[in-house]
């Protein structure tokens, strides 16, 4: 059984905003020295600020944060059963992503400030922080940071999700908070409307909260000095090379980049000449020819049929073959299915077999296309959609690599990363 | 919507949604509404497009017939 594990080592580079305090240490004192006391904007001011800065969620979906804030605010009532809830989602289920781990380890109080500011503006009393069991340092960093903060009318709770790929999905997190298995369930309305115990719940990724925190600390003008007019601010990227046969990613680099800045400022010459997976295992392949001019901008990525997602990048700079890797990762994703939805439970293993066939030089492309169409949109969460996106993008973005592999022109020697017997 | 669909059976009036963790591929929905629901190779329903005006009655029946209450008709 294959498994892909989070990176063994992280290298976190100092950045212009979120990662500006990398060398200060994670203490509250260091954080306050750099960013100042906790701001107390009222709700209207906060929504304005977040809207003008066009802050989008950093968990992968890119949902506008101001809209979420408004929705939660609208659903509030005075009864305890209508009091809103704030959730910090730091359960980074994507093994090739380490930006939340890095952020929480380096600047936990920026994340927690963001959550606290929103909680106070919304009149929420409960703030929940969720981390993953397979990144125990993150849980520890959260506990240490919370111990330094004063409660002051807020109830902070922490939760540890299983180290599973789908455990960081929004509804899976809410299930965990309710004491049930942390796996996705069908949602008939967004959690901002009907979330934890039916209450309006503002659940966002740890980095989203850090952006909100940084925004209220430095102000809209300073925040917008970074990035572009259409996409103000920065984003965190995780840069890795593929995991080895043991499933381990040796090293992940986490870097903060301004929106609109060029990939060539982050990727070395080898990486610029090789296929790049953008958006982690639910992301899309980008052809090397597009990398020279690639910019960290969502509209730009979309024009290439790709998406920034949660900013996890895997470069095949080592010269390895995208077909072999895609096959290995599809099997991983099939195993990681919660197994609750028929099309996913059946379709992903079938897709893994078809992709493995392709890796063994059988032209299974028609079957792959059939299966990616069959699993998309037919599950309680986006796991089948993301998997289909990964495999489909291999066919549409790297058709020459696929052809080369099928004809044997690719030098990869059909060595699909070994199955552990 | 196109003029053709309005001639044939009316404008789109609803959407059939499957509660996937509940569905056990019993297949009653596809039997009751074969023009709108077909079964994939594993027996799970594939919903083909929105429900038209003239299909609302049958769609409602299909939703009621599901032994798992896994089929929901959401009116537009």
Layout of helices and strands:
The complex is a heterodimer of chains A (421) and B (76).
Chain A (H helix, E strand, L loop, with lengths): L8 E4 L15 H8 L7 H10 L12 H10 L10 E6 L8 H8 L1 H15 L3 E7 L3 H13 L6 E7 L8 H8 L23 E5 H19 L9 E7 L10 E8 L10 H4 L3 E3 L5 E3 L11 H6 L8 E4 L6 H14 L6 H18 L5 H11 L7 H15 L1 H9 L14
Parallel strand pairs in A: 1-7, 2-3, 2-5, 3-4, 6-10
Antiparallel strand pairs in A: 6-7, 8-9, 8-10
Chain B lengths: L2 H6 L3 E7 L9 H5 L4 E3 L5 E3 L3 E2 L3 H10 L5 E5 L1
Antiparallel strand pairs in B: 1-4, 1-5, 2-3
The gist of it:
The complex is a heterodimer of chains A (421) and B (76). Chain A is of the alpha/beta class. Helix content of chain A is 40%, strand content 13%.
What does this structure look like?
- Chain A is of the alpha/beta class and about 425 residues long.
- Helix content of chain A is about 40%, strand content about 15%.
- Chain A is built from 15 helices and ten strands.
- Chain A has helices at about 30-35, 45-50, 65-75, 100-105, 110-120, 135-150, 170-175, 205-225, 270, 300-305, 320-335, 340-360, 365-375, 385-395, 400-405, and strands at about 10, 85-90, 125-130, 155-160, 200-205, 235-240, 250-260, 275-280, 285, 310-315.
- In chain A, strand 8 and strand 9 form a beta hairpin.
- The longest helix of chain A is centred in the middle third of the chain and has 19 residues, at about 205-225.
- The longest helix of chain B is centred in the last third of the chain and has 10 residues, at about 55-65.
- In chain B, strand 2 (about 35-40) and strand 3 form a beta hairpin.
- The mean pLDDT of chain B is about 90.
- Chain B has helices spanning about 5-10, 30, 55-65; strands spanning about 10-20, 35-40, 45, 50, 70-75.
- Chain B has a three-stranded antiparallel beta sheet, with helices on one face. In chain B, strands 2-3 form a two-stranded antiparallel ribbon.
- The two termini of chain B are about 15 Å apart.
């Amino acid at each position: 059984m294959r498994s892909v594990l989070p990176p063994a080592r992280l290298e976190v580079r100092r950045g212009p905003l979120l990662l500006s305090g990398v060398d200060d240490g994670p203490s509250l004192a260091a954080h306050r020295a750099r960013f100042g006391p906790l701001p107390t904007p009222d709700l209207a001011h906060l929504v304005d600020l977040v809207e003008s800065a066009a802050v989008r969620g950093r968990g992968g979906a890119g949902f506008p944060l101001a809209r979420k804030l408004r929705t939660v605010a609208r659903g509030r009532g005075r009864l305890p059963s209508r009091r809103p809830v704030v959730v910090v989602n730091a359960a980074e289920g994507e093994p090739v992503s380490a930006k939340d781990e890095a952020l929480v380890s380096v600047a936990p109080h920026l994340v927690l400030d963001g959550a606290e500011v929103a909680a106070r503006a919304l009149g929420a009393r409960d703030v929940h922080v969720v981390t993953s069991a397979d990144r125990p340092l993150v849980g520890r960093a959260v506990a240490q940071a919370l111990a330094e903060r004063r409660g002051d009318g807020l109830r902070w709770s922490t939760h540890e999700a299983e180290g599973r790929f789908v455990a960081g999905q929004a509804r899976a997190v809410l299930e965990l908070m309710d004491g049930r298995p942390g796996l996705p369930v069908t949602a008939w309305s967004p959690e901002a409307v009907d979330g934890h115990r039916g209450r309006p719940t503002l659940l966002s990724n740890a980095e989203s909260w850090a952006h909100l925190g940084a925004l209220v600390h430095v102000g809209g003008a300073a925040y917008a000095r970074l990035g572009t007019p259409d996409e103000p601010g920065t984003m965190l990227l995780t840069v890795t090379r593929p995991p080895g046969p043991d499933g381990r990613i040796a090293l992940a680099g986490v870097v903060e980049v301004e929106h609109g800045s060029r990939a060539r400022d982050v990727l070395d010459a080898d990486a610029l000449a090789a296929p790049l997976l953008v958006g982690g295992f639910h992301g899309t392949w980008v052809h090397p020819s597009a990398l020279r001019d690639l910019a960290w901008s969502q509209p730009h990525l979309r024009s290439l049929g790709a998406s920034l997602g949660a900013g996890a990048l895997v470069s095949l700079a080592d010269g390895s073959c995208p077909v072999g890797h895609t096959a290995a990762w599809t099997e991983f994703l099939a195993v990681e299915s919660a197994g609750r939805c028929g099309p996913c439970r059946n379709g992903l293993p079938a897709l893994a077999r078809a992709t493995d066939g392709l890796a063994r030089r059988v032209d299974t492309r028609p079957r792959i296309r059939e299966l990616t169409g069959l699993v998309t949109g037919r599950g309680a969460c986006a796991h089948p959609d993301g998997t289909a996106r990964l495999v489909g993008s291999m066919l549409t973005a790297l058709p020459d690599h696929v052809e080369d592999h099928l004809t044997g022109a690719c030098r990869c020697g059909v060595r699909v990363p070994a199955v552990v017997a | 919507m196109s003029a053709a669909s309005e001639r044939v059976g009316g404008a789109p009036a609803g959407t059939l949604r499957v509660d996937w963790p509940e569905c056990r591929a019993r297949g009653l929905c596809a039997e009751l509404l074969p023009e709108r629901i077909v079964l994939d190779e594993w027996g799970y329903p594939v919903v083909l497009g929105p429900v038209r005006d003239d299909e609302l009655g049958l769609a409602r029946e299909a939703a009621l017939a599901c032994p798992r209450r896994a089929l929901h008709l959401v009116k537009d």
